[in-house]
Amino acid sequence: MVINSVSDVREMAACIGDNIKKVIIGRDDTIEMVLAAMISGGHILLEDVPGSGKTMLAKALAKSIDGEFKRIQMTPDLLPADITGINFFNMKTSEFQFVRGPVFSNILIADEINRATPKTQAGLLEAMEERQVTVDGVTYQLKSPFLVIATENPIDTQGVFPLPEAQIDRFAVKLSMKYPDHQAMIDIMKTHMTKDVLMELEPVAVKSDISDAMEIVKNIRIADELVEYVVNIVEKTREDSRIILGISQRGALALISAARGLAAIAGREYVLPDDIKRAAPYVCVHRIILKNSERIKENAELEVMEQIIDSVPVPTEEL
Q1: Quick check: 123 pLDDT over 80?
Q2: Which residue has the higher pLDDT, 227 or 25?
Q3: Which one, of 259, 49, 68, lies nearest residue 173 by Cα?
């Protein structure tokens, strides 16, 4: 597959999405946002209860693009060097030799990231933001494309280390798998109880396709009025009395990137207000911190964010 235009990106995304749906059933919206984040260069945080398919979704995506992928089971005894790599002294050559860690891959699956210590979590910061790692003063560039898909269990409180704001802010989107509906549950049972569908999954794209798509997505047009619309949403989170930490500039850029990704998946060379409104909950909710008195309700952050989005006037002129 040659990726030269937005229509090519749309065709590629549709092929990858259909391939993933052979394994992940009844989660079309989540799959679409995963694809939008990937082609816009963003990292993904998957949060939900055990057994909901978080790791399977990450593996299905990795197999679909035929890229090199590594999986790390994050545990409290994991060290940053276990992710980035180490220098060891080679007795035969009498020289130090760098052994690359699993971060040197196209897709890095960090399973149960909140089980690793803050020191180990911080070992991913440079890789996620700058696509490079520095070991003993030497900087190594990571492969392209590079995507971190991290999973975490929101209900476990024993032996976990909540991600700090600086780490959470590195994730372009935060997605939840949620429980499937009744019919989807039946379809899942029929699909997975007799064979390993994931093992049978074949690639439908290659990693160079993703790199080419990312370059095209960067050039998706977004009108000045829509940039101001994004800024208005972000500033509203900083002014809201219920929020003690609003969205940063990185969050605003992530929202624009995700909206561009959705536009490309739809086959458009320009962003619409609806792209921003659809991406905003996935991009913004994990970046705001509510006052303690506001956290009583379940999904309080989502409710507040939806109210903010509804309160900001949407540009209506011809864009």
Answers
A1: yes
A2: 227
A3: 259
Average pLDDT, the chain: 88
- Other CB atoms within a 10 A radius of the CB of residue 63 amount to 21
Strand 85-90 relative to strand 69-73, pairing: unpaired
Contact 147, 38 (CB under 8 A): yes
303: helix, coil or strand?
A: helix
What is the reported pLDDT for 319? Answer: 55
Report CA 160 to chain centroid distance, whole Å: 21
First to last CA, the chain: 32
Quick one: which H or E segment has residue 274?
helix 273-284
Q: Cβ distance 83 to 103 under 8 Å?
A: yes
For residue 140, give both structure tokens: 């190594």
76, 116 contact by CB (below 8 A):
yes
The pLDDT score that the predictor gives to residue 308 is 94
